[in-house]
Design brief:
GNAT_dom; GNPNAT1-like; transferase; glucosamine 6-phosphate N-acetyltransferase activity; single chain; alpha+beta
Length: 151
């Protein structure tokens, strides 16, 4: 199933609203993340991704510049009814492609415990066996070094 993915900035507010509707459903309503933690004020500093399936927004993520080589991937979410169809993987592949175009060679993220195997299936590695807590949810730091050919 092909997802049509595009990127935008916070100032493109009509697109941000579509992405935020997904985050609201997934993180705030489903996972009970407090709204003030979900809306952390960093969205204006991010590049946002939105995936449409049959013209309906189903997946989102954002990436944040850390340094010239590194992006941090955050807020990866697929609406519940559309999971396990490859959409999460497609959003992440789009992020890697964009990173490649911008000569970014490393992606880092904090994975929720229940998403570790999802990221491992995409080539990310855990940086520690120790969990830390964000919004009451156990997380682990992961990273993926992007191959030369992607740059
Ligand atoms: C994590 C999430 C984004 C995965 O999206 P998805 O569209 O369901 O995943 P995909 O269908 O693209 O799966 C890609 C691969 O990861 C695997 N996978 C997906 N979710 C998994 C999970 N929770 N545990 C183990 N493996 C998983 C799939 O089996 C698939 O493997 P394959 O390519 O070998 O078949 C989605 O479950 C989600 O939005 N969860 C709630 C929000 C969340 O926890 N986000 C992560 C924050 S760190």
């Amino acid at each position: 199933m092909a997802l049509s993915v595009f990127t935008f900035l916070f100032k493109d507010f009509e697109f941000f609203k579509l992405a935020y509707d997904i985050r609201n459903e997934v993180f705030i309503k489903e996972q009970k993340v407090p709204v003030e933690e979900e809306l952390d004020g960093l969205d204006p500093a991010c590049i946002h991704f939105l995936g449409l399936y049959e013209n309906t927004p189903v997946a989102t993520a954002r990436v944040r510049y850390i340094d010239k080589d590194t992006w941090k991937v955050e807020r990866v979410a697929v609406i519940k009814e559309q999971r396990s169809k490859g959409f999460g993987k497609e959003i992440m592949e789009n992020i890697e492609n964009e990173a490649g175009k911008k000569k970014v060679s490393k992606l880092i993220l904090n994975s929720q415990k229940n998403a570790i195997d999802f990221y491992k299936s995409l080539g990310f590695e855990s940086l520690s066996d120790e969990f830390f807590y964000e919004a009451g949810i156990p997380h682990v730091q992961m990273e993926k070094i992007l191959k030369e050919s992607q740059n």
